[in-house]
Amino acid sequence: MRMDEFLEEDDVNRNSFVFYDSFYRAMHYLNDKEKIQYIDAICCYSLYDIDIEMDEKIEGMFQLVKPQIDANIKRRENGKA
Question: pTM value?
Fold first, then answer.
């Protein structure tokens, strides 16, 4: 499914998420193309529950932030956020 088709369905749309300073600081050593991929991965997963294809380096970085995103999603779903 293409992203625009997914967004039209509105199955998962959390409208917002927390982007931590640590996520931003981790981007310091990335080039512009990698930064875009990293931010896109975080946004797609946090807002729409979509895992996008990414380079190994970005995948490794994403796996480090994913547990925090998952914890935030769980807190919100449980009504504690």
Answer: 0.80
Block means of pLDDT (10 residues each) for the chain, 81 residues, are 56 78 94 96 93 96 95 85 51
Cβ neighbours of residue 52 closer than 8 Å, sequence gap 6 or more:
40, 41, 44, 45
Please tell me the distance from the alpha carbon of residue 74 to that of residue 69, in angstroms, as a whole number. 9
Q: What is the SS3 assignment for the chain?
A: CCHHHHHHHCCCCCCCCCCCHHHHHHHHHCCHHHHHHHHHHHHHHHHHCCCCCCCHHHHHHHHHHHHHHHHHHHHHHCCCC
